[in-house]
C-alpha cells in the first residue's frame, strides 16, 4: 500500500482517456483530484471512482480560460501532488479559413497555455522535492501536419516538443515527463470538435479503445518513459510519415480527414 498517500491531479478527468486514467490510478490507491468544466459530470465521476475507497476531490474549472488555469494552481497551493496528468484538450474541425478564431484561440489556450501553466507550477514543486511524474496528452497528430484540424495538430506538436525539452532539463532531479500519443480514439473528442462527418471518424472499427490508450500511457508514465505511441497502426503511421516530406504527409491527412461526400 505504498501508494496510499499519493495524489494525482487529472485535467479532463470526467471522460475519455482522462477518465480511464483516473480508474487506473484509483486501482493503485492514489487519491484523485479531477478537474473539468462540468460540475455535474465531476460529481458523477467522483461517485463512480470513490466507491473503491480512495478520496476523490473535484474542481470545476474551464482551462481554456488562462485565469482559471492560474486559479487552479492557487487552489492547490502547496499541497503535495505526486502525479500531474494534463489530459484536457479540444479540437475544432473545418478549414482554417472558415473556422471561428475565438474557438481556435480557446483550443490554443487549453491545449498549450493550460499545459504550460500547470506543468510550470507543479514541476517546480516536484523538483524541489526530488520526486514526481507528469503525463502530458500529446497525439500522433503532433507528428503529422493536419489539414481540417490545422490548429489542433499544431498544438499537439507543441506539447510533444515542450514535454521532451522540459524532460531533458529535469532529467537528474527525480522528476519525469512522459508524452502519451494516441491516434483516433473512441471518445467524445470528435463530437465536440464537430468532426463526425470526417472520413477518419466514420470508420468506428479503426478507433482505439480509450481504456487501452490509458493503459499504455499509465505504464509508460510509471516506467519513466519519454513517450509512448498508443497502438501498432499509429506507430506505423508515424514511422511512415518520418520518411515522407511534410507536404506529402499533409496531403495524405487532407484526404483522410476530409468530410465524407454524401450521395
UniProtKB/TrEMBL annotation:
Signal peptide: none annotated. It comes from Mucilaginibacter mali. Belongs to the short-chain dehydrogenases/reductases (SDR) family. GO terms for cellular component: membrane. This is SDR family oxidoreductase. The keyword Hydrolase does not apply. The keyword Oxidoreductase applies. Keywords: Oxidoreductase. The lineage of its organism: Bacteria, Pseudomonadati, Bacteroidota, Sphingobacteriia, Sphingobacteriales. GO terms for molecular function: oxidoreductase activity.
Amino acid at each position: 500500500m505504498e501508494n496510499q498517500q499519493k495524489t494525482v491531479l487529472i485535467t479532463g478527468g470526467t471522460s475519455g482517456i482522462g477518465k480511464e486514467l483516473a480508474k487506473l490510478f484509483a486501482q493503485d490507491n492514489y487519491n484523485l483530484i479531477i478537474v473539468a468544466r462540468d460540475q455535474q459530470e465531476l460529481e458523477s465521476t467522483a461517485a463512480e471512482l470513490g466507491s473503491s475507497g480512495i478520496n476523490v476531490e473535484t474542481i470545476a474549472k474551464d482551462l481554456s480560460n488562462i485565469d482559471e488555469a492560474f486559479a487552479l494552481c492557487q487552489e492547490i497551493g502547496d499541497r503535495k501532488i505526486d502525479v500531474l496528468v494534463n489530459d484536457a484538450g479540444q479540437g475544432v474541425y473545418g478549414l482554417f479559413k472558415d473556422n471561428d478564431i475565438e474557438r481556435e484561440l480557446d483550443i490554443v489556450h487549453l491545449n498549450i497555455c493550460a499545459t504550460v501553466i500547470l506543468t510550470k507550477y507543479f514541476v517546480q514543486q516536484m523538483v524541489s522535492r526530488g520526486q514526481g511524474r507528469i503525463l502530458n496528452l500529446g497525439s500522433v497528430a503532433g507528428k503529422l501536419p493536419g489539414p481540417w484540424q490545422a490548429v489542433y495538430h499544431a498544438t499537439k506538436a507543441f506539447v510533444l516538443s515542450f514535454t521532451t525539452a522540459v524532460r531533458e532539463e529535469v532529467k537528474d532531479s527525480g522528476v519525469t515527463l512522459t508524452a502519451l500519443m494516441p491516434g483516433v480514439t473512441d471518445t467524445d473528442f470528435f463530437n465536440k470538435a464537430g468532426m463526425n462527418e470526417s472520413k477518419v471518424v466514420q470508420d468506428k472499427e479503426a478507433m482505439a479503445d480509450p481504456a487501452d490508450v490509458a493503459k499504455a500511457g499509465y505504464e509508460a508514465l510509471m516506467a519513466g518513459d519519454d513517450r509512448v505511441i498508443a497502438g501498432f497502426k499509429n506507430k506505423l503511421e508515424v514511422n511512415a510519415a518520418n520518411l515522407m516530406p511534410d507536404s506529402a504527409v499533409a496531403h495524405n491527412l487532407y484526404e483522410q480527414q476530409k468530410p465524407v461526400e454524401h450521395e
